[in-house]
Amino acid sequence: MSGDSAQSVLIIEAKSKETSVATAEHQLTGIKEQFEQDGYYHASNVYPDEALLRLEADFDRIVEQLENSGEGINARWDGAQTKELDGGKSSIIHTHNVQRYSPRWLEALQDERFLDIVEQIIGPDIVLHHTKLFQKPPREGAPFPMHQDWSYFPTQKDTMIAGIIFLTDADVESGGLRVYPGSHKLGRVADSSGRVPSRVLEQYPLENAEAVNARRGDVFFFSYLTLHGSTPNRSDRYRKTVLAQVHSGSDCVVSGDGLNHVNESLVLRGWNHHMTRERAAV
Ligand SMILES: O=C(O)CCC(=O)C(=O)O
Which end of the chain has less neighbouring CB within 10 Å, N or C? Predict the structure, then answer.
């Protein structure tokens, strides 16, 4: 662990109904066990204030560029599941791959504090699949219905995890995340994308899941098998996040019909044992 890492601060505590944070010396013990038990790990103060100021400036610059581009940038999910949560009207600004816009965001992904935690969870070989910027506007920010992520980019060994980097505080009112602890143990649930009807997901409504109260600078890590969603942003504040999807370099994304998700295949630490000449050329 680096000197920088030694100064950073992490969350250790998760309690019933609401996840919460307790700050402690940057220490990595227990992260793996907690992640294996809950299917998530909430790390606080991963990024210091100076870094957050630079990252937020570039986040805002990306949003401005998107707004001026004339492209469709509203990533609200269609369908009955979303309509049930937002009444049919909301929006969320989105682009993939912030590191294709900004070197500061690439540095954030290579940050020792971030990677030290990821390493605890998936091991020393860390490959970036993609990142996603989400800006939920005040009062009408789009929710995400409860879902698992695996069907969008399945891997051979299910090592894929997300780390949501919070640039703003986010609670239930401001479009925060909700999760079902331990739900990763359900494995791959059929029709769990959140965009189609599912008898199984009906048993896990968004409002009954644990609320994640995240603070600016926190990173919330979770398995792509963990049931999660997020509430509409009804507050007067923006909710700004960047989600990084990473997997072990000993694992590999499965190819198949309809599976054409953007994939950076960028090694952030260690080695990519599944890279081949053909894959490296995509
Ligand atoms: O950031 C959020 O509100 C949730 C995003 C999410 O669930 C996803 O991208 O799979």
Answer: C
Q: Of all atoms in ligand 1, which is nearest to the CA of residue 136?
A: 3
Instruction: Domain ranges for the chain, please list them.
Output: 3-11+32-280
Give me ligand 1 centre to Cα 93, in Å: 12
Q: How far, in Å, is the centroid of ligand 1 from the Cα of 68?
A: 24
Specify the DSSP class assigned to residue 205. -
What whole-number distance in Å separates Cα of residue 89 and Cα of residue 49? 34
Whether ligand 1 lies within 6 angstroms of the CB of 230 is answered as yes
Phi, psi (deg, nearest 5) at residue 243:
-105, 130
Whether pTM > 0.85 for this model: the answer is yes
Nearest to 221 by CA among 122, 152, 78, 143: 122
| Multiple choice CATH, 3-11+32-280, 2.60.120.620, 3.20.20.20, 3.40.50.300, 2.60.120.200 | 2.60.120.620
- Helix, strand, coil percent values for the chain (each to nearest 5): 30, 25, 45
Is the CB–ligand 1 distance for residue 152 below 6 Å? Answer: no
